[in-house]
Amino acid sequence: MSVRKRAWITSKGEHKEAWIVDYVDQAGKRRLKTFAKKEAADNFSATANVEIRAGIHTADSASITVAEAGKLWLETGGQAGLERTTLDAYRQHLRLHIEPYLGKLKLSQLSAPTVREFMDRLARGDMPEGASPEPRSPAMVRKVRVSLSSLLSDAQERGLVSRNVVRELRKTRHRGAERRAERREKGKLKVGVDIPAREEIKAIVEAATGRWRPILLTAIFCGLRASELRGLRWADVDLEKRELHVRQRADRYSTIGKPKSESGERTVPLTPIVVNTLREWKGPRAVAMDAPPVCPKSEKGLVFPTGSGNVENHSNIMHRGLGPTLITAGVTTADGRPKYGLHSFRHFYASWCINRKVDGGLELPAKVVQERLGHSSIMMTMDVYGHLFPRGDDSAELEAAEKSLLA
Known about the structure:
elongated, mainly alpha
């Protein structure tokens, strides 16, 4: 490998010079790379020499652009069977954030400083013409960084780039600090703000009527995710044993599939009000005009289908079911809008499982709460709901310790 200076005169009589790195890569192919300064040429020579010995060097001429690598990355995700919603999120990250700034760069030209600048510009909204100028949130910047890292990892496996420069940005402890800062910014879940209060739940239960009552009561007293409610089958509901089994879910495209994780498959006990409501909902088609509605026939055996038996749309549940129910119950914001979303009922269920029995809760151990919610780890449960668990009254011990200290 050699570094040499090249000088020449242009057709206009201008004197030009550049530094050329002349080398042979690990495949035995001769490569040339030109630099304006000797220092840059020397740095490249040293780095390329190490990469060639390790068999991981990729020349610029053998590399492809970030945009082209992104298409291959999406193909890999599709072949791996990733969910449609996940692929859509990746596609948006690529189209809206990565391609406008990095799309034309070759993978071999990416560096940690380049990616660092890209992330900073995302956060400021300082993007090229044609891209959205809105500043991205810290959470979105982190998601885009993860997607870019995944893209580069896929390119590494294809031999299109020698290293994943995103991994050179931060150490794990810094990423942990970012997550902690984000949690501090969001704050802890609060009753009456993020979690419906007991009085609000009572009002909602009384106001829920018609075809929306069964799904809303199941959400409140079983803590299922919206996708799990929409994918619930009668075959997974045992009214005699008073329990339901979460074995499938419906994504935003109404495609039925397995829960997101193994722990998502679980058994949830049913309260008497849910059992009675579901029994009426499942019962034979009523004839009397004032009889409560019953579940429409569904070839998929769904518990909460549309009138034609298909998977219910999440938007319908929110705008035709939950929203009007909250307004009727008087559970609204200052400007009269529905106060909570469907996921808030999952928060309520978690708090109900955690709260002390004297306060109307179930007072369940943390591990049982994790299983009821279908969390993948106990840490997830404690990170989100740990502050809701009862604390012991240690005032007597504090008083004794204070007297002992000051005696």
